[in-house]
Amino acid sequence: MAKDRLLKTSSFTGVNVFEQNLGKLYMNIYCQSESGAIYCLNYLYKHRGRMVPNPIWNAKRVEILITGSMAPLIGTPLASVVHMDRQFNPIIHLFFIGKDHFVQEFVWIDGEVKWTKSLAIKTAPDSRLSVTSSSVTSDVTCLRLFCQSPSGKIEEYKGIYSTLSQRAPGDNINSNPITVWEKGQTLDFSHSNSNAIPLPGTDLAFVTDGTKDDMNSYGYWQTTEGTVKQFIYDGTSWKMGDFIIRGAPLHTAMTAAFLNVCGKRTPRLFYVGNLLEDPGADGLVMKAQAEILGDAICSKPVDCNSRIFGIQTDVGFYVFTVDGVGFKPHGFPWGNVEPFMSDSCCIQDSIKVYGLETSWERRL
To answer: Which SUPFAM superfamilies does this UniProt record tie to the protein (predicted)?
Structure first.
């Protein structure tokens, strides 16, 4: 039997999950193997109010109940989000692109697989994915999914998840809530600014602070000129912001988050940039940028072609940088933008999933 190995170019995405009934806090990180399978790396770090001593990563293959053209595309982008229902059960949505280049949605409720669904969303072959979540009521959650269309434009799709809705007759599982999707806006600013044309295959980083009206939402992508631009949702439409980054490598990796800074929740963009601080050094750094003027607030050395993703936890915000050896966490605690690493957070300095440790290997 052949061993399944981590795909060197795998995308990564992750969520922080709280299971109230069991008192568990853990991270789930999703990635892809060489066979095309999706794996979940689970990291239980807190149980019944106490930090778990010496936690480990446990890998489990995600049993996706779709095959053929809807099965995950090799090298598919991954995006995920978690929210709670009225009973405080965690609901995880995982998005990927199938071999037919349509977006697929995979949903767990309280740790149990509920459904997979092919969305009527056609993407460009090299499109990335980004998703946000905001609470409308205790029964209704608004998801916003972003991708690049075959025409190269950035498209928004709005999904309403309601515990009051029912699945359609003939679907895999009846009497479960569903996400009802509709087309949102096309984020096309090329008519007013020729410098805003998205780079084909650009990474996408969208974030919201979770307010009911989604007015505090931001998005970032790279243009054909290589600049990274910011886009702001004002409650009615998306508009181009003043924030700009020049000189980032083409197809730079990005992730974004809201962090508490001096008592104010402020958007932060993390991206892989050139190592400009030391002209004599080689390589790249992960940078965290402030909203205004794009001033760097931190930098961490990373390998070439590193990917990054972030997870908000109750012990801080973590940005993971990924290379061909493993992934490393860089923590940002609440109320502070200075990077830190703390043993009390029970996060390993390096988790070498590509090293094919026993927890990662799976014989097919």
So the answer is: Fucose-specific lectin
The reported pTM is 0.85
Quote the Cα angle for 248-143-196, to 5°.
30
User: Measured between alpha carbons, how far is residue 129 from residues 52, 125, 126 in Å?
Assistant: 32, 12, 10
240, amino acid identity? M
Distance CA 93, CA 192 (A): 35
Q: Which residues in 153-283 belong to E strands, given as ranges?
A: 154-162, 178-187, 204-208, 217-222, 228-233, 238-245, 254-261, 264-274
Structure tokens at 278: 């030391």
Please tell me the distance from the alpha carbon of residue 114 to that of residue 110, in angstroms, as a whole number.
10
Angular region, 346: left φ>0, alpha ψ -120 to 50, beta rest? left
Q: How many whole angstroms separate alpha carbon 240 and alpha carbon 232?
A: 6
Contacts of residue 188, defined as CB under 8 A and 6 or more positions apart, other chains included, come to 153, 154
Nearest CA to 134 out of 58, 221, 235 is that of 235
Domains and CATH numbers, the chain: 3-363 (2.120.10.70)
What are the C-alpha distances in Å from 271 to residues 245, 289, 300, 343?
10, 8, 11, 25
198 phi, psi to nearest 5 deg: -65, 140
- Rounded to whole angstroms, the Cα distance separating 321 from 175 reads 40
Q: What is the largest CA-CA distance in the chain?
A: 64
